[in-house]
Amino acid sequence: MQHYFCIMDLMLVLLILGIFFGFFVQTITGFAGALVALPFLLFVMPLVEAVCYISIFYSISTPVYFYREWKNMDKLLLRKLLVTSVIGLIIGSIILVFGQPTILKKALGLFIIFFVLNTLINKNPKQLSSNIQFVLGIFGGFFSGVFSTGGPLYAIIIRNETNDVKVFRATMFGILGVVSIMRISVLIAEGALTTIELHNSLYVLPFFVAALYLGKKAYLKLDEKILRKLILSLLFISGIILIVKN
């Protein structure tokens, strides 16, 4: 019995740390929350359960982000991304329950790294065609459903459309928030999300609120050039994590 409580305590501690640091970074940059949180969570729980927890807190944060950032969101691009994301999300969520496509995860990591390197080397990168954006949108939904890590793909699409950090960040909040709400619905329908995750999330909630507050404070103090470099750095790191982490 004592061993059981020790395991539960460790699980809650790592859950709190993962959600806090994940959403602290998410609030600053607009994405990468799941990529920061997953290494903490996967140490003490399976992937499906980790995705459930991340989806819960994404869904809670979505109304907050929409209220704060609606005026800065690219609404047209957001609508386009939603259409493609629905297709990918349904496929990805089904695969999440019945399998774990590790090879695809590593391929995503390589793609992200090549994109960052190309951005750094080529100061005037070509605009992504509408067809490429369509495909990336589907894969964004797919990887959001499977690994809760579709953010980097959405970041590539949105960054290609705007150099305005405020618009980038706000639109990232928009697409990741709506995708997370859709993912919650799919996880409930598949029986993956249970009352256990909801109960444990109550213990994490104060730390999650603190992460949103402190992240917003940090964002307001950051220079836009530094923020752009931080976004590219997080993309690069996320690519490496996806390749290395099983």
TrEMBL record:
**Chain ranges passing through the membrane:** 12-34, 40-60, 81-98, 104-122, 134-158, 170-189, 201-220, 226-244
Note the superkingdom of the native organism.
Answer: Bacteria
Major place of residence: membrane
Q: Where in the cell is it found?
A: Cell membrane
Q: Does the keyword Cell membrane apply?
A: yes
GO CC, sorted alphabetically, is: plasma membrane
Topology relative to the lipid bilayer, per the entry, is: Multi-pass membrane protein
The alphabetized UniProt keywords are:
Cell membrane, Membrane, Transmembrane, Transmembrane helix, Transport
Question: Known Pfam families for this protein?
Answer: TauE (PF01925)
Q: Which PANTHER family match?
A: MEMBRANE TRANSPORTER PROTEIN, TRANSMEMBRANE PROTEIN YFCA
What is the similarity comment for this entry?
A: Belongs to the 4-toluene sulfonate uptake permease (TSUP) (TC 2.A.102) family.
* Protein name as catalogued: Probable membrane transporter protein
Q: What does the record give as the organism's lineage?
A: Bacteria, Pseudomonadati, Bacteroidota, Flavobacteriia, Flavobacteriales
